[in-house]
Structures are given as structure tokens and as C-alpha cells.
Amino acid sequence: MIRLVVMLYVRFPLSLRNVEDLLFECGIDICNEIVRHWWGRFGPIFAGGIGRQRANRMRAFRHWRWHLDEMYVRLNGKMVYLWRSITKARSSKASLPGRATKPQR
Length: 105
Hints:
Blueprint: H1 2-11, H2 16-25, H3 32-59, E1 72-75, E2 78-81, H4 82-93
Antiparallel strand pairs: 1-2
Helix pairs in contact: 1-3, 2-3
């Protein structure tokens, strides 16, 4: 039941009182402070377990790699193309021969 309460609060955009009301309609009478306490105590434990499960599933693949999506971010009030920033940082450390780079826009 604790896992259900914490997952309701974390997974959906619900307030503590909304979770309390949903559970009351199901016949479970708890206070919103109990929901907050359980979230603070068990939330990191559940999140760590989920992260470990995801990592283990990903490691099961033979060629496991993380891929970063191309995106724009705002740095110091200026929009910066993230891929270009990463490739510049890599090329300043050491250039990799034979590696294709993205065309700059």
C-alpha cells in the first residue's frame, strides 16, 4: 500500500490532499501528512530500485550505449545548440581521426 501511495503522488500531478481524497474514496483513511512522510522516507528507495532495474535491462543488450538527443538550451540568456557545444568540447581535448562530425547550422 505504501508503494501505491508514493507512486500516485510521484507519477501523477497530484497534491498530497488529492492522494488522500483518492485513497479515501477507495476506503483507505489516511492523513496527507502520512503521504508526505512516506514519500520522503520511501521515495528515494523506490526510485533507486527503478533506476537499477532500468540499468540492468539496458546492460542486457550487447552494445549498450547512452545517446544524447540534439537540442537547444538557454545558457546565460542565449540559445545554444547542445550538440555543437559537446563536439567543440571534445575536439578541444583531442581530435578523433575518422570520426564524422555533424554539420554546423
